[in-house]
Amino acid sequence: MTVLTPIESARSAASPARAAVMQAVSGVAQTELAPLVRAIDAEGLYPEGVMRAMGAAGAYRHHLPRLNETFDLRTTIDAMSRASELCLSTGFCMWCQSALGWYIFNSDNAELHETLGAKIATGEVLGGTGLSNPMKTLFGIEKLKLSATRVEGGYRVRGALPWVSNIGPEAWFAVVFEREDGKRVMAVLHGSGEGVKLTANDHFVALEGTRTYGVQCRDAWVPDAHVLADPIDDYIPKIRGGFILLQAGMAFGMIQGCIDLMEQVKPQLGHVNRHLPDQPEDFAERLAAMKAEVYALCETPHDLSREYFRRVVSARLMAGDESVAAAHNAMLHCGARGYVTGGDAQRRLREAYFVAIVTPATKQLRKMLADMDAA
Ligand SMILES: Cc1cc2nc3c(=O)[nH]c(=O)nc-3n(C[C@H](O)[C@H](O)[C@H](O)COP(=O)(O)OP(=O)(O)OC[C@H]3O[C@@H](n4cnc5c(N)ncnc54)[C@H](O)[C@@H]3O)c2cc1C
């Protein structure tokens, strides 16, 4: 079992830093994000200014080991949650950015910490993660989509990923590919890198403002300097807990946003809404319990034990279930005012399903728990 080093433990206690980040993040959410929420949903607007302002506010850096005076996943989760209260597209883009930083600073590639990693941490460079396919591969759900040939000084990568978000021609993103000997490698690719082609995607029912592209690798060039782990065997267990835990920010914000919607209609509709079986107070109580569990798990994100990972997977499953349930109830409580095209409740309902289908999806989480029980 790996636990935090004493330095990491000391850093994780630093909550004044969290308060400062949250104050700045709340300001960005209210003044810059709130006015854009409908355009993000209806027109697929990518909130680039918000993403960069969130970076300047410190939203992408506190969970990064080896970088900070603090080492604190909770601050990053809380910042993502604040944005997700208003808009899940933005909350998800913040997760993409934060996950890429998590991979880089958990890698032994020190040069990448100082170059790309430092810029991802501040939002100066934007980026994402193409790890859905490998995360499914590692748990026996599908085959790895990228393969590579070893050449002098690096790899040539072939294959395609259907969806990678928060990217573009100027962005970086992480991928996993298979070597000729079957071993797997994780590396970063650039959106305009040699042999990399970004393709326009299907339209989604929500999350349209996430700059989501298909990625084609046609002998894409990956120099050794861009490798995060080769092979990935010991590295994936180090990053998988944080990868999943950070997604809690999307769920916490979604649930809180739905509680707010239910509360908002109480003055007009409370006399009849009180007959609905699920009330905002019920969701608030369960949200508090979920937060307590996730924040406790955030204290030791490098714990490699089976018991720890089981708790992480269980918390993530509950996050998806509760997000969908809260959005469903926001719709029931808001009634027709939530059902009009500009209504917030219908948007939250469409968004909420994303928490349950983004990797690891509800069905994958249930398979992982079943496999753990059977082992
Ligand atoms: C808005 C959005 C953003 C996403 N962003 C990312 C990201 O940044 N990084 C990332 O790695 N993943 C991303 N994904 C993928 C996501 O994480 C999940 O993998 C996906 O939603 C399906 O997961 P699932 O476990 O339900 O698999 P299933 O839907 O059961 O199966 C998924 C597999 O089916 C195939 N498939 C199904 N439908 C289609 C289709 N319309 N076109 C092509 N292939 C199809 C693909 O092979 C895919 O791997 C995104 C998905 C969406 C909808």
Describe it:
This protein has a four-stranded mixed sheet with strand order 1-4-5-8, covered by helices on one side. A four-stranded antiparallel sheet has the order 2-3-7-6, with no helix packed on it. β2 and β3 form a beta hairpin. The model is unreliable at 1-12 (pLDDT under 50). The longest helix has 29 residues, at 306-334. It has 16 helices and eight strands. It folds into three domains: 6-125, Butyryl-Coa Dehydrogenase, subunit A, domain 1; 132-229, Beta Barrel (Butyryl-CoA Dehydrogenase, subunit A, domain 2); 235-374, Butyryl-CoA Dehydrogenase, subunit A, domain 3 (Up-down Bundle), CATH 1.20.140. The chain has 375 residues and is α+β, with helices and mostly antiparallel strands.
Short key terms for the protein model shown above:
375 residues; 3 domains; binds flavin-adenine dinucleotide; disordered N terminus; single chain; 14% strand; four-stranded mixed β-sheet; globular; Butyryl-CoA Dehydrogenase, subunit A, domain 2; four-stranded antiparallel β-sheet; Butyryl-CoA Dehydrogenase, subunit A, domain 3; alpha+beta; Butyryl-Coa Dehydrogenase, subunit A, domain 1
